[in-house]
Amino acid sequence: MSLPDAGADTTVVVTGASSGIGAELSRELARRGHGLTLVARRRKLLDELATSLRDDHDVEVVVETCDLADPADRARLITTLRESGRRVVGVCNNAGYGSVGTFADLDLEREVGEVRLNVEALVELTGAFVRDMIDVGEGAILNVASTASFQPLPGMATYAATKAFVRSFSEAVHAELSGTGVSITVLCPGFTETEFAATAGAGSFEDKFPGFLVLDAKDVAREAVDGMASGARTVVPGVIHKAHAFSSRFMPNTLLLPIARRLTEDRLAR
């Protein structure tokens, strides 16, 4: 068993829940009856989402604001969750951001913060709850990576590297958990229309890519939660993105890197 059935004394933690894939993961989990703990920095958006979920699905929803890139604030959150009286049966590590541009020209502090949030926070939140899940023989963790994890990406060097770590870490720990009743699923979406592109300084994916390449966050969330429920190792939504992920595993970087650099430069120039 991976993600167990919803219970009155259980909760699923969703980070980065205030918008995009995180908000849709929250809606999908609530639709299936799960109590939720929503985590992000923006309290107003979390409160609005929590109210909607309670009204629409009659589930318990708790809001916790936290700067997950801050180790002290992250430790406070973990303590709060442990002392809440609700058993954490699922964690969706969705919080993260990206940056676009030449690494040498980007703000170094923001790049380091990207690693802290995308990697360090994810590892700590995974480690904080996986042992308890093993002890009871059930639980599921969803770590959000990206199709960017399948190859180095000039122009998004730090982001792709953090997501490569997330995918490698998640798949390895998934194997280690075999037979425990606990699973880690890594979600690798392609271009999804969320706030990600604007935050990264890339505008809107819908403005830069053909519509058939841009995923709907609701569809991504549904496939992701299905993966948690079944204990899947990896979820790559969309046929085209599955093909991209598969081919990227075998294409040598000597061929891939120049292509990736040109595509990034061309798209950002539009």
Model regions low in confidence, pLDDT < 50 over at least 5 residues: none
Q: What quaternary form is this? A: single chain
What Rg, in angstroms, do the CA atoms define? 18 Å
* Helix segment tally: 10
Order of helices and strands: EHEHEHEHEHEHHHEHH
| Category from helices, strands and their pairing | alpha/beta
> What amount of the residues lies in strands?
5-15%
Tally of DSSP β-strands: 7
The 3D shape can be described as globular
**Side-by-side strand order of the widest sheet:** 3-2-1-4-5-6-7
Largest sheet: 7 strands, parallel
Approximate helicity band? 40-55%
Describe what you observe in this structure.
The chain is an alpha/beta fold and 270 residues long. Helices cover 51% and strands 14% of the residues. It is built from 10 helices and 7 strands. The chain has helices spanning 20-31, 43-57, 71-82, 108-136, 157-176, 196-200, 205-208, 217-230, 239-248, 253-268, and strands at residues 10-15, 36-40, 61-65, 87-93, 139-144, 182-187, 234-235. The chain has a 7-stranded parallel β-sheet, sandwiched between helices. Helix 2 links the parallel strand 2 (36-40) and strand 3 (61-65). The longest helix has 29 residues, at 108-136. The termini are far apart. The model has no long low-confidence stretch (mean pLDDT 87).
